[in-house]
Amino acid sequence: MQNKTNIIIGIVAFLLLVTVPFWSAIFTGEAQNGPELSYDTPVINAMVDPHCVEDVDYMRANHMNILNDWKVEVVREGTRVYVASDGTEYLASLQNTCFECHSNYEDFCLECHNYSNVTPTCWECHVEPSVTVAGGAN
Amino acid sequence: MDMNRRKFLQLGGAAIAGLGVAAVAQTPAGAAATKNYINHPDKRTGVKYGMVIDMNKMDEAKFQECITACHKYHNVPNIDTKKDEVMWLWGEKFEHLFLDEVHDYTAEKYKGKTFATLCNHCEEPVCVRVCPTKATFKNAEGVIGMDMHRCIGCRNCMAACPYGARSFNYKDPRDYLDEINPTYPTRMKGVVEKCNFCSERLAVGELPLCAEIAGDAIIFGDLNDPNSTISKALAQNLTLQRRPSLGTKPKVFYIV
Hints:
The complex is a heterodimer.
Chain A: H1 4-18, H2 20-28, H3 42-46, H4 56-77, E1 81-83, E2 89-91, H5 94-101, H6 109-115
Antiparallel strand pairs in A: 1-2
Chain B: H1 5-25, E1 37-38, E2 49-54, H2 60-73, E3 89-93, H3 94-97, E4 114-118, H4 126-130, E5 136-138, E6 144-146, H5 156-160, E7 167-168, E8 192-193, H6 199-202, H7 209-214, E9 218-222, H8 229-236, E10 252-255
Parallel strand pairs in B: 2-10
Antiparallel strand pairs in B: 2-9, 3-4, 5-6, 7-8
């Protein structure tokens, strides 16, 4: 194999370059700083036993699926009550149920959506608690 | 290492199969949570909703109050230009609503009089038939609803609706709202909207907003039940529908 040294140097350089996001995250410490979700809202603080409609791990992984199901059941079927795994009944509504507790859109929803670089289209129509005046969207 | 073609392929195949098994084994168990939805206890089922507007009892002030309340509740933008305006409930002259009922000698008390009008929630809705995404649909109670999540803004329904009951959001509606009702969504630019008979209120056992405000000028109820107020009103009065000859069977009736 001719140019063996150059080829190996080239491969190593390529691999380093490709993995730059990982290196830079480790050196700048960004990788350790996950999203910091705030549960500091009046309604949650007032709860004796803070809980969501399902358990936290499930909600973290599947809240988008629950909302997706809610939208079909509520809009198309008109069945507006969600029966959670523990039997508790909730009005299936992003604006009227979720936001009742999670009234801190910026520090809760956005915090994680920004970290994972997702831009859900929900907010093009659904009104987050901070939007209340004309032209306040976007 | 002595690696021939056959051995390489065997190893590769085994590795891929192994990955597949691992992926299946790792499927989160939480994804199988039960999906259980029930009706709100106050929701009425087995009904067919209709509306009678009694124009003898409807006065202008009350009507304006209905429009304001409806548009405010549903975050309907207030746009002045004719082309861009969005309306769920609005006023129209008698001769424009009832084309076939007007002749040269129609009483003056009808001509020029403003009548309340809205989506007719037809029993045979044309808009539902032409919608390519099933965004517009007829629900179990006969209400024509819109699933804004599915509307692609093609405007087939606007061309199909013989009553002009639909408006298109040519502009971002949030720019034309003085205040936003946080309990109801707004729309986005590029979708069609119309009156939904307050299906969000019906689903929790409440009357449509206009029927609640207008009192006995708007009778709302179950057409299936012969003893309901609306059925009795229809049985005892001569009522008009808008353009019945089209066969769309509107469920909004007028007592003139």
